[in-house]
Amino acid sequence: MSWFRRAKPANPFAGNWTCAGCGEVHQGMMDLAALAPDPWPHERIQEPNSAVRLDGDFLSEDFCVMDSRYFFVRAVLEIPVHGQAEKFGFGCWSTLSRDNFEKYLDGFDNADFANCGPWTGWLCNQLGTYIGTDPEGVYVYPQPDRQRPTLRVANPDHGLAIDQEQGISVEQLTEILRFYGHAPTA
Ligand SMILES: [Zn+2]
Fold first, then answer.
1. Is 128 contained in some domain?
2. Which InterPro entries match (predicted)?
3. CA–CA distance, 83 with 11 (Å, rounded to integer)
4. Does a structural domain hold residue 184?
């Protein structure tokens, strides 16, 4: 029996950690979330999901309608992080066609999306160095058990599609979080 233990690099996302960026205490793997699609022209004040309407402008936790003709759902884009059990999740908004948006609303309460998807949409939030102001084409996968739909970048050559496939290092994740004012101390 040896008392020698190999030194492991510290895991900045283990347990609770105090953020050198925003000063808050974050728990474990940190996710980022956008409260509305970037083109949303109003204050990001959310109505209840149950108040959803297809005309005019509407924003809730999970649904958004703009100008009676653009329909968005809150989704999550996951990126595996090497050496981490949890994936990094970017909470963001994708468009859906009106048809698919209505299907999503119909199935939402029971999370009943049998034989649904993947749908296509446009991711409408910027993400660090990956996605700028131009929307990016994505596949939208409805999930069971009232989980938010997951997104995959459609263009397999896009840097984000590659990183979704192969994962990123803790250092790369730290860079993304820094972009948003958070700073895990590695
Ligand atoms: Zn922070």
1. yes
2. DUF2199
3. 9
4. no
